[in-house]
């Protein structure tokens, strides 16, 4: 690439000159490529320096220098990563600049002209490709080229960033570069001639931690299932670790569902031709992380994206102060939070904004901005650094905001009348005073006082509205008017697995509450749950959702309850209610970690009893609603909507802390559960105005004295006093760590379940199946990374049974076939893979799951002889996959397919055709394929085995007799497959001969079969009758040494059809010189007739040796006839050297067919073939080989099929 001219002081230091002319020098860096001048110790040191030193790590291996005559100063004008690239630049200079420069007389003019020309080229290139000037652009482009080259990654793999660091291999640190891409963590080092290369997929990482040791204060530890890796000496470890965390999170999301792949797709697409900047992907991921934190902080909808933030002050009228903080601006919201935690926060939806104006600046109030809302509140911000730009951005967003009609409900309505109760009345008054002082509705000032009021309990009449406000659900409801009604309408009358589960659980949802003891309450609950199941099919419905939703319906309207459920499932309790309750399991791990830190005296005891895992799921999934009396549990829900998940953790720790002594004396988990159950049952809410509702969880026997009552407000206050230091950001860090562990544990469980289910169906061992599953899953994930014919959602459906979750399409199957199947040899491998894929794809969705894959592989590797041959037969009985596939055209060419490859040592000249007028010079040679007499002797024994296998197989669902017959076109394909299968076998020649003999035998069997299945019909050509009569004479009269001419059937008129019944093709090679064939069969067997067909096989044209099957064919002219005669035990092929061209289109015999039993019996007559198909296959060796290919990062079948796997060390 051309670079802005830079001065070089020492032109030859560390560089070798390869080309030179009076003005330009082309140089190669020592230690890179080439033989002369760059090797030795100097080259080794330079290569090491290029990797270790930051200053030279990005130096391209080639460069072009410009030097004016009589000057000692050199200028770099171009550099390149490859010799080809730099040579193109060199040739351009020689053709376009060299002659022009010779005209100049002044050295300064030459310098100015060259520098101006190069800068002009760069500017033009940038203009065409829309590139802005950026210092890192060229360096990052080099890093991308290096990344793809070093690790064999395809273009689709996007590099995010790269960092200098040390990798500890054993006790030796290797200084090098860490490359972080969307799907892989890679490291490369080259020290003193020793190379270290590491490739780890993010989906394989089980642990990612930032550790501090005495030797290295900053170290990143990366664990996979099989190894652990340590990296240190980072220039900016915090930035590196944050990016690693984010990429690992995306990978875990990919394993969990398909949103991770969609996130990957949503990253900015960079044109291959344009230089890629370090900022593009990195900046996008940083922005995504900031948006996530912003949404979590202010409880905003999950599609809200942060546009920017700035420091400012906010005037707070309730305490007459200017509070220092940050303003955040996004597409639909303006938010503020104070620097001092919990002091004040503010959410202003743009839909509520009426006026945005710049007020006059003063020394007291510099750069003020006033924002007014519909509920007549005005917010005054000041000390804004770039006020004009900010106002412009807000104005732009306001123009995009559509005014949606939503009337905020006045917080005064009541579900249950409680005005007479003093405590309830006092609570309501406290809230009304608060609203008067801090504002009411979504735009109110949220302060510590707001939280304190919530902790004291929300009045019954205000609970629903405040839940909407505190959770942020009010924003989603306001921006989606009519959404819920539409969803209910669409979901009515529709049934699926989720609706069945909902119906089953409806009457189990707070059955003790009067609201759900009638059909009205049940119907509302049904509508909300069903609507959500249709909104989010990934979750659908999960047990515990019914309990939470029923409580929401008690305090909120139906639509409000729906949006509260959305906020709960999708934002506040992420992944809690999916099919594998991953979120709850993650938080269970977080809770265990918190218990270890905050109640260490109890932790070991609880772990021994296994109680934490039992209690946490029921506590967290239902927010204590299923384990506490109802009136107390709703107070917990109040706090949860205000403070989030930290409240649940604090409360759970407080419950454990209150029962430490009793739990330490427990002898088993049952006793511990009883202690905790009795404690939670005794939690009361004395302020509640609700009628007492019996709690189903209370199952205490009469002989146990009741537990002392525990006040819910005192318990919550205690949890804040003892465990209030737990921060939301700390919980998120712990969640990330646990998410890796939980999802990888679930993946291991899935693998074990799959293996346990399948091991009885196949002949593979458990170890083999586990390795195969890992390969299959890796192939699935790779296809999701780098695309394929179908998208990720089609290939992975977590709701399906374990065996069907991961699926691959044909491109991925082709790669697996080439690596693992014993029949994948030669150029025919892809065709065979396509046939097997179609056979295994039972439902025709163009995807196969692991069970289908293993069934095919098991039959091919570990099946007995009959099973293997049945699989081979089935693959060819299927209809042809597509009309584009080139079909065999000539049986003659198919015959050549075998016999041309037979070496002279295998041929035996029997004699010349006595009727050939041209004599010996004609080249009529009779090639004898002598059948092995051992095969004859053993044929009876083989038939006995066949009868035995047939009896065994009768109990199977698909008996051999159920298999359809093989027609002539399919038979040719089967023969071609068998020929290609042997191309790399040590007994290649023997197998070719055996196949030829079997083919001849089957052709004769097919001809005989025609006589028994088809009655002779009148033919327009009398020679056909003659042929049939001749065959009958041969069959029944057993006349020896008599030849029967077989006339070629006339071609079909009109369009040519290819189907199961017939396969007709055309010879695509015009003027192809073919030779007449005569087959003389002197065996005393009854079937001396031969096949009359003409097909060609274009696929064989790519083979180095054009061999053919022993297919018997005849020309279409009377003089080109095929003859059969009996000559003892030998099948004899007679070839002529005539150069007659075959007709372009002829037909295959429609009536010819063979059965599987005939195919099996014929093959059993050849010991070489029996031995080949009986040969055991070492599966682990093939799996190891597949892994090695992946570790080297080499393509499997094409440039787009890559397999990258963890490389230990």
TrEMBL record:
<dbReference type="InterPro" id="IPR036017">
    <property type="entry name" value="TCB1D9/TCB1D9B_PH-GRAM2"/>
</dbReference>
<dbReference type="InterPro" id="IPR011993">
    <property type="entry name" value="PH-like_dom_sf"/>
</dbReference>
<dbReference type="InterPro" id="IPR004182">
    <property type="entry name" value="GRAM"/>
</dbReference>
<dbReference type="InterPro" id="IPR036014">
    <property type="entry name" value="TCB1D9/TCB1D9B_PH-GRAM1"/>
</dbReference>
<dbReference type="Pfam" id="PF02893">
    <property type="entry name" value="GRAM"/>
</dbReference>
<dbReference type="InterPro" id="IPR035969">
    <property type="entry name" value="Rab-GAP_TBC_sf"/>
</dbReference>
<protein>
    <submittedName>
        <fullName>TBC1 domain family member 9 isoform X3</fullName>
    </submittedName>
</protein>
<feature type="domain" description="EF-hand">
    <location>
        <begin position="828"/>
        <end position="863"/>
    </location>
</feature>
<keyword id="KW-0343">GTPase activation</keyword>
<dbReference type="InterPro" id="IPR002048">
    <property type="entry name" value="EF_hand_dom"/>
</dbReference>
<dbReference type="InterPro" id="IPR000195">
    <property type="entry name" value="Rab-GAP-TBC_dom"/>
</dbReference>
<keyword id="KW-0677">Repeat</keyword>
<dbReference type="Pfam" id="PF00566">
    <property type="entry name" value="RabGAP-TBC"/>
</dbReference>
<dbReference type="InterPro" id="IPR011992">
    <property type="entry name" value="EF-hand-dom_pair"/>
</dbReference>
<feature type="region of interest" description="Disordered">
    <location>
        <begin position="1080"/>
        <end position="1108"/>
    </location>
</feature>
<feature type="domain" description="Rab-GAP TBC">
    <location>
        <begin position="457"/>
        <end position="644"/>
    </location>
</feature>
